[in-house]
Amino acid sequence: MPVGRTPRVSGLQRQVLHFYRNVIRTAREARPAESQQILQFARAEFERYREVDRKNYQLIEHLLRKGTKQLNLLQSTEVIGVQLHRAAAS
Amino acid sequence: MRLTAGSNCLQALGVQSAGLVRGFAEQGTFLDKKDVTDRVLSVVKNFDKVDPSKVTPTSHFQNDLGLDSLDTVEVVMAFEEEFAVEIPDSEADRILSTSDAIDYLASHPMAK
Protein backbone atom coordinates (compact mmCIF):
# COMPACT_ATOMS: atom_id res chain seq x y z
CA MET A 1 0.00 0.00 0.00
CA PRO A 2 1.54 3.32 -0.96
CA VAL A 3 2.30 5.56 1.99
CA GLY A 4 1.28 9.18 2.07
CA ARG A 5 -1.63 8.84 -0.31
CA THR A 6 -4.95 7.25 0.49
CA PRO A 7 -5.40 4.44 -2.00
CA ARG A 8 -8.59 4.52 -4.01
CA VAL A 9 -11.12 2.18 -2.52
CA SER A 10 -12.62 -0.33 -4.92
CA GLY A 11 -16.25 -1.43 -4.84
CA LEU A 12 -15.34 -4.75 -3.29
CA GLN A 13 -13.19 -3.09 -0.62
CA ARG A 14 -16.10 -0.82 0.19
CA GLN A 15 -18.37 -3.85 0.57
CA VAL A 16 -15.86 -5.38 2.98
CA LEU A 17 -15.70 -2.19 5.04
CA HIS A 18 -19.50 -1.94 5.11
CA PHE A 19 -19.61 -5.54 6.27
CA TYR A 20 -17.13 -4.75 9.06
CA ARG A 21 -19.39 -1.87 10.11
CA ASN A 22 -22.38 -4.24 10.27
CA VAL A 23 -20.40 -6.59 12.47
CA ILE A 24 -19.59 -3.77 14.89
CA ARG A 25 -23.27 -2.74 14.94
CA THR A 26 -24.29 -6.31 15.76
CA ALA A 27 -21.64 -6.58 18.47
CA ARG A 28 -22.98 -3.43 20.14
CA GLU A 29 -26.33 -5.07 20.64
CA ALA A 30 -24.84 -8.04 22.46
CA ARG A 31 -24.15 -8.03 26.17
CA PRO A 32 -20.86 -6.31 27.04
CA ALA A 33 -18.79 -9.47 27.59
CA GLU A 34 -20.01 -11.10 24.36
CA SER A 35 -19.68 -7.81 22.55
CA GLN A 36 -15.94 -7.70 23.25
CA GLN A 37 -15.51 -11.30 22.12
CA ILE A 38 -17.40 -10.68 18.89
CA LEU A 39 -15.23 -7.65 18.10
CA GLN A 40 -12.04 -9.56 18.86
CA PHE A 41 -13.11 -12.51 16.77
CA ALA A 42 -14.11 -10.32 13.83
CA ARG A 43 -10.90 -8.29 13.85
CA ALA A 44 -8.84 -11.50 14.08
CA GLU A 45 -10.68 -12.94 11.07
CA PHE A 46 -10.05 -9.79 9.03
CA GLU A 47 -6.38 -9.77 10.06
CA ARG A 48 -6.03 -13.41 9.08
CA TYR A 49 -6.69 -12.49 5.45
CA ARG A 50 -5.01 -9.09 5.40
CA GLU A 51 -2.41 -10.22 2.88
CA VAL A 52 -4.89 -11.63 0.38
CA ASP A 53 -4.17 -10.17 -3.05
CA ARG A 54 -6.65 -7.43 -3.86
CA LYS A 55 -7.23 -9.02 -7.26
CA ASN A 56 -8.19 -12.38 -5.73
CA TYR A 57 -11.88 -11.61 -6.16
CA GLN A 58 -13.00 -15.21 -5.79
CA LEU A 59 -11.48 -15.62 -2.36
CA ILE A 60 -12.56 -12.19 -1.15
CA GLU A 61 -16.14 -12.73 -2.30
CA HIS A 62 -16.13 -16.18 -0.71
CA LEU A 63 -14.94 -14.73 2.61
CA LEU A 64 -17.53 -11.99 2.42
CA ARG A 65 -20.30 -14.57 1.90
CA LYS A 66 -18.95 -16.71 4.70
CA GLY A 67 -18.78 -13.72 7.02
CA THR A 68 -22.29 -12.64 6.14
CA LYS A 69 -23.58 -16.11 7.01
CA GLN A 70 -21.75 -16.03 10.34
CA LEU A 71 -23.17 -12.60 11.02
CA ASN A 72 -26.71 -13.78 10.27
CA LEU A 73 -26.18 -16.67 12.65
CA LEU A 74 -24.97 -14.28 15.32
CA GLN A 75 -28.01 -12.06 14.80
CA SER A 76 -30.42 -14.96 15.27
CA THR A 77 -31.87 -15.02 18.74
CA GLU A 78 -30.55 -18.41 19.79
CA VAL A 79 -26.94 -17.34 19.46
CA ILE A 80 -25.56 -14.92 22.02
CA GLY A 81 -21.88 -14.79 21.23
CA VAL A 82 -18.72 -16.18 19.78
CA GLN A 83 -15.50 -17.07 21.49
CA LEU A 84 -11.98 -17.17 20.24
CA HIS A 85 -9.83 -20.08 21.40
CA ARG A 86 -6.15 -20.28 20.74
CA ALA A 87 -5.18 -23.82 19.80
CA ALA A 88 -2.29 -25.09 21.89
CA ALA A 89 0.94 -25.27 19.92
CA SER A 90 1.80 -28.89 19.31
CA MET B 1 -18.77 29.78 7.43
CA ARG B 2 -20.28 28.23 10.44
CA LEU B 3 -23.79 27.61 11.67
CA THR B 4 -24.41 28.00 15.35
CA ALA B 5 -27.56 27.39 17.33
CA GLY B 6 -30.18 29.80 16.02
CA SER B 7 -31.09 31.36 19.36
CA ASN B 8 -27.52 32.49 20.07
CA CYS B 9 -27.28 34.29 16.73
CA LEU B 10 -30.62 35.97 17.23
CA GLN B 11 -29.80 37.08 20.75
CA ALA B 12 -26.62 38.60 19.43
CA LEU B 13 -28.73 40.54 16.95
CA GLY B 14 -30.98 41.75 19.75
CA VAL B 15 -33.96 39.56 18.92
CA GLN B 16 -35.56 38.81 22.27
CA SER B 17 -38.86 37.17 21.62
CA ALA B 18 -38.57 33.43 21.25
CA GLY B 19 -41.99 33.50 19.61
CA LEU B 20 -40.54 35.04 16.48
CA VAL B 21 -37.87 32.41 16.10
CA ARG B 22 -38.49 29.58 13.72
CA GLY B 23 -35.76 27.38 15.10
CA PHE B 24 -34.68 23.84 14.46
CA ALA B 25 -36.06 22.74 17.81
CA GLU B 26 -38.31 20.08 16.35
CA GLN B 27 -35.49 18.34 14.55
CA GLY B 28 -32.82 19.07 17.11
CA THR B 29 -30.19 21.76 17.19
CA PHE B 30 -26.71 22.01 15.81
CA LEU B 31 -23.91 21.56 18.27
CA ASP B 32 -21.30 24.24 18.78
CA LYS B 33 -18.38 23.58 16.47
CA LYS B 34 -15.82 24.14 19.21
CA ASP B 35 -17.56 21.56 21.36
CA VAL B 36 -17.74 19.11 18.45
CA THR B 37 -14.04 19.62 17.75
CA ASP B 38 -13.06 18.90 21.36
CA ARG B 39 -15.18 15.76 21.53
CA VAL B 40 -14.02 14.45 18.14
CA LEU B 41 -10.39 14.97 19.14
CA SER B 42 -10.88 13.26 22.48
CA VAL B 43 -12.53 10.23 20.81
CA VAL B 44 -9.59 9.95 18.39
CA LYS B 45 -6.98 10.45 21.13
CA ASN B 46 -8.60 7.71 23.20
CA PHE B 47 -8.39 5.25 20.33
CA ASP B 48 -5.70 2.81 21.44
CA LYS B 49 -3.81 2.73 18.14
CA VAL B 50 -3.40 6.49 17.94
CA ASP B 51 -0.52 8.55 19.32
CA PRO B 52 -2.49 11.32 21.11
CA SER B 53 0.24 13.90 20.46
CA LYS B 54 -0.28 13.61 16.69
CA VAL B 55 -4.00 14.37 16.78
CA THR B 56 -4.95 17.79 15.40
CA PRO B 57 -8.27 19.14 14.08
CA THR B 58 -7.12 18.26 10.55
CA SER B 59 -5.39 14.89 11.02
CA HIS B 60 -6.01 12.39 8.26
CA PHE B 61 -6.69 9.01 9.89
CA GLN B 62 -4.63 6.98 7.47
CA ASN B 63 -1.96 9.40 6.24
CA ASP B 64 -1.26 11.26 9.49
CA LEU B 65 -2.27 8.86 12.25
CA GLY B 66 -1.20 5.61 10.62
CA LEU B 67 -4.56 3.90 10.92
CA ASP B 68 -5.76 1.38 8.34
CA SER B 69 -9.19 1.22 6.74
CA LEU B 70 -10.57 -1.14 9.41
CA ASP B 71 -9.37 1.20 12.17
CA THR B 72 -11.03 4.08 10.34
CA VAL B 73 -14.33 2.17 10.41
CA GLU B 74 -13.87 1.65 14.17
CA VAL B 75 -13.16 5.33 14.77
CA VAL B 76 -16.23 6.41 12.80
CA MET B 77 -18.33 3.94 14.81
CA ALA B 78 -16.90 5.50 17.98
CA PHE B 79 -18.15 8.91 16.77
CA GLU B 80 -21.60 7.37 16.35
CA GLU B 81 -21.53 6.28 19.95
CA GLU B 82 -20.17 9.58 21.29
CA PHE B 83 -22.71 11.70 19.40
CA ALA B 84 -25.64 9.25 19.53
CA VAL B 85 -26.19 9.31 15.77
CA GLU B 86 -26.26 6.65 13.11
CA ILE B 87 -23.95 7.51 10.22
CA PRO B 88 -25.06 5.80 6.99
CA ASP B 89 -22.44 3.86 5.00
CA SER B 90 -22.34 6.41 2.19
CA GLU B 91 -21.51 9.23 4.62
CA ALA B 92 -19.16 7.16 6.73
CA ASP B 93 -17.08 6.36 3.62
CA ARG B 94 -16.32 10.07 3.27
CA ILE B 95 -15.12 10.62 6.83
CA LEU B 96 -11.37 10.21 6.42
CA SER B 97 -9.98 12.85 8.77
CA THR B 98 -10.84 14.63 12.00
CA SER B 99 -11.91 17.68 9.98
CA ASP B 100 -14.34 15.55 7.90
CA ALA B 101 -15.82 14.23 11.14
CA ILE B 102 -16.08 17.68 12.73
CA ASP B 103 -17.82 19.11 9.64
CA TYR B 104 -20.22 16.19 9.41
CA LEU B 105 -21.15 16.15 13.09
CA ALA B 106 -21.41 19.93 13.42
CA SER B 107 -23.92 19.94 10.55
CA HIS B 108 -25.86 16.94 11.84
CA PRO B 109 -29.09 18.15 13.46
CA MET B 110 -29.49 15.05 15.63
CA ALA B 111 -25.96 14.95 17.05
CA LYS B 112 -26.00 15.13 20.85
From TrEMBL, chain A:
* One GO cellular component term: mitochondrial matrix
User: Example GO biological process term?
Assistant: mitochondrial respiratory chain complex II assembly
Places the protein is found: Mitochondrion matrix
What are the entry keywords?
Chaperone, Mitochondrion
Q: What is its main location?
A: mitochondrion
Q: Does the keyword S-adenosyl-L-methionine apply?
A: no
Would the keyword Mitochondrion turn up in this protein's UniProt record?
yes
What region holds the Complex 1 LYR protein domain?
A: 14-72
Provide the family line: Belongs to the complex I LYR family. SDHAF1 subfamily.
Protein name as annotated: Complex 1 LYR protein domain-containing protein
Question: What is the native source organism of this protein?
Answer: [Myrmecia] bisecta
Automatic annotation (TrEMBL), chain B:
State one Pfam family annotation. PP-binding
> What is the official name of this protein in its record?
Acyl carrier protein
PROSITE patterns registered for this protein in UniProt: CARRIER (PS50075), PHOSPHOPANTETHEINE (PS00012)
Q: Which InterPro entries match?
A: ACP (IPR003231), ACP-like_sf (IPR036736), PP-bd_ACP (IPR009081), Ppantetheine_attach_site (IPR006162)
Q: In which pathway does it act?
A: Lipid metabolism; fatty acid biosynthesis
* One GO CC annotation: mitochondrion
PANTHER family annotated for this entry?
Answer: ACYL CARRIER PROTEIN, ACYL CARRIER PROTEIN, MITOCHONDRIAL
Q: Which residues form the Carrier domain?
A: 34-109
Which species is this UniProt entry from?
[Myrmecia] bisecta
